[in-house]
Specification:
2 helices, alpha+beta, 184 residues, Alpha-D-Glucose-1,6-Bisphosphate, Chain A, domain 4
Length: 184
């Protein structure tokens, strides 16, 4: 852990921390001796993450370009509407990189144009870089590290950081439970 790193959320094996201003990290592992988890880490797993969380995501679209690239449009529910904050969406170009004992997803925001069929007042999340590192410990156990870097112009209040940690916990706990309960 970096000397500046501050743990914002730590529960049931999930750790969400601020590495430095606008840079965050989420870590957890998934284990299931009934399946080879490393074989299911692809863009369909990314789609599963969103499909398991319809209370968080209003609309998702993942266009798989090939085995190593996809375009994802993710519209979140309007969580902070009562506080006057606009609904958020992500529009990401995702690349999959396969290394020995590691699968990496590098995602960057597409800013050149806006996807169709989004509410006019929805704002794009200021994600500069989202890197998901899947360390394959064994074929049945994978350690996930998500590194999220937001645009420098974004100022994230501490209260919002903790809420983001809670939302991420909810999202990935469902995915973890789903995968760990698969029986073949």
């Amino acid at each position: 852990m970096d000397s500046q790193e501050i743990i914002l959320f730590n529960k049931e094996g999930f750790t969400f921390s601020r590495v430095k201003k606008n840079k965050y990290k989420l870590q957890f592992s998934i284990e299931n001796n009934n399946i080879n988890i490393s074989k299911i880490i692809d863009f369909n797993l990314v789609k599963l993450i969103y499909d398991l969380n319809p209370d968080i995501y209003e609309k998702i679209n993942i266009k798989i370009l090939n085995d190593f690239e996809a375009i994802a449009t993710l519209l979140m529910k309007p969580f902070f509407e009562d506080l006057g904050l606009p609904q958020k969406f992500s529009f990401l170009h995702m690349k999959k990189i396969v290394e020995e004992r590691k699968i990496i997803f590098k995602s960057t925001s597409i800013k050149d144009f806006r996807p169709e069929n989004l509410p006019d007042d929805a704002e794009q999340m200021a994600i500069e870089d989202l890197t998901s590192v899947c360390d394959i410990i064994t074929p049945h156990k994978v350690y996930f590290t998500f590194n999220i870097i937001f645009n420098d112009s974004m100022n994230i209040p501490q209260m919002v950081e903790k809420m983001v940690g809670l939302i991420l916990f909810k999202i990935f706990k469902r995915v973890k439970q789903f995968i760990e309960n698969v029986r073949i």
